[in-house]
């Protein structure tokens, strides 16, 4: 699904399914959670006031983690109903990915959001998806969440597009790719010159 202005363009695996013209008709996400295997936060984003306080959010995270802990959601995403919400989740190493939506939302669309998030994180972390690597690259994961959903509205579900946008954002702070290449070449030349002078 892609959003252009106030039009949602629907597609499933690249096949166009149609469009809706009202933004309210677009699926809405309540939250996206990335927790560790103990149910503790790694990265979370809430898009509604269904959990108005930090205590309510932490309680929800602990509850959903406890409820899903004994399931086998490693090879494929699982879908469950929890506290009048649809929760789609998947476990990768010691990280647990969750997407929560209202009961009136389409489970396939919510599962597509989850899979886009998981795949984008795998791309950004170069398939080293674990808690330590995720915490070291938390800025990339938070940018990833921003590229997927904004204000509860799904913006993008294609992992390569998400990862590409995140990579572009992270490079903007460092300078252009050509500037980096020139800088790296000059640094290497200086290093070789210094070694040859020390001989």
TrEMBL record:
Belongs to the adaptor complexes small subunit family. This is Coatomer subunit zeta. InterPro entries: AP_mu_sigma_su, Coatomer_zeta, Longin-like_dom_sf. The coatomer is a cytosolic protein complex that binds to dilysine motifs and reversibly associates with Golgi non-clathrin-coated vesicles, which further mediate biosynthetic protein transport from the ER, via the Golgi up to the trans Golgi network. Coatomer complex is required for budding from Golgi membranes, and is essential for the retrograde Golgi-to-ER transport of dilysine-tagged proteins. The zeta subunit may be involved in regulating the coat assembly and, hence, the rate of biosynthetic protein transport due to its association-dissociation properties with the coatomer complex. Keywords: Cytoplasm, Cytoplasmic vesicle, ER-Golgi transport, Golgi apparatus, Membrane, Protein transport, Transport. The keyword Membrane applies. GO terms for biological process: intra-Golgi vesicle-mediated transport; intracellular protein transport; retrograde vesicle-mediated transport, Golgi to endoplasmic reticulum. The lineage of its organism: Eukaryota, Viridiplantae, Streptophyta, Embryophyta, Tracheophyta. It is a peripheral membrane protein. It comes from the Eukaryota. Residues 29-167 form the AP complex mu/sigma subunit domain. GO terms for cellular component: COPI vesicle coat; Golgi membrane. It comes from Elaeis guineensis var. tenera. Oligomeric complex that consists of at least the alpha, beta, beta', gamma, delta, epsilon and zeta subunits. The keyword Chaperone does not apply. Pfam families: Clat_adaptor_s (PF01217). It is found in: Cytoplasm; Golgi apparatus membrane; Cytoplasmic vesicle, COPI-coated vesicle membrane. Its main location: cytoplasm. CDD domains: Zeta-COP.
